[in-house]
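Quick start: what a row looks like.
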Amino acid sequence: MESRAEEHLIRDEAALEALYGAVGEASVIKEVDHLHPHYRAFVEASPFAILATAGPEGLDASPRGDPAGFVVVEDEHTLLIPDRRGNNRVDSLRNILRDDRVALLFLVPGVGETLRVNGRAAISVDPALLKRFPMGGKPARSVLVVRVESVYFQCSRAVLRADLWNPERHVERSTLPSPGRILAALSRERFDGEDYDRALPARVRATLY
């Protein structure tokens, strides 16, 4: 016998469509298989994107950021995304080696609409390509070459509900656990969290690129 919680789960598309209704015409029209000039404008104005990937070990959603225009629209079917220095987990890149499907969400500060791009990615270390993306006097470590399959804008409702760009809603960093405090707790105090927090700001600045 199903529990009361399971009894109310939606398990098929018919039930889902009955709940949410038909897709509006505008929601269908806005999806295209290429980077229309209007969509290109969003990519070129964005300093921040979230890259979603999938692999045998699971899913990953990873932030990507640099000055606006860091993602290059090579042509209407191709995006170039430089990869910078990080924590060397390279979860996204490992996933792409096994499953080349990717999804991107571009955000533009102050703008409610976001841009969603789906496609397939390859990891390039072509020296000529890496040199096209210098930051801090260093080339990119690798470049994702994304073959675009679908593009569409997401309406502003989520950003407006979150009041995301309102500076009065910014959260004081001190109200949340620090990186060092988190590491100390997860390591059961084997990790010196206070030392980590003291060294972190200088280390981030020194290793930004």
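That is the whole record. The radius of gyration is 20 Å. The first strand starts at residue 48 and ends at 55.
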